[in-house]
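B., you asked whether I could sanity-check this one before it goes into the benchmark set. Here's the sequence:
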Amino acid sequence: MFGVTLPEDVTELFNKNSSAIASPSSYLISVNYIPSNITSIGKEAFTYCSNLNSIIIPEGITHIKDWAFRYNYKLTSITLPTTIEYLGWRFLSHNGVKTIICKATTAPTINESAFFFSSGGTFYYPKGSDYSSILESSTFKNSGWTGVEI
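And here's what the prediction gave me:
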């Protein structure tokens, strides 16, 4: 197990080439802490983390960019904070996610291919919230996702 300390001025998780910071890594099993100065999970940030099984995105994260969690076949659940505003292109492609819990009362903007190549499952969202932009998107429906109010 290892830890990483990030400078206070860092606001996005990605490397200097705007690609994965944590991948490929067979050692990463879960993400338990992302500092409050991070507001965006960058392109391919956790791609090919072959043993990552769950992640709770903390409050303050507003954007999850393209392919952020691609090729994580053991990843089964992801929890999105109330602050999430954007889900990028194929952010969940090629993985095992079956449960998404979104706490935002306003539906995040999604890329039209956000759920493309995902395995389908249950997308939970706050009762009384308007999530029609997500629930009616073609990639959501065509990828086998079902929306449930909680």
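One thing to flag: Helices lie at 132-135, 138-142. Otherwise nothing jumped out at me.
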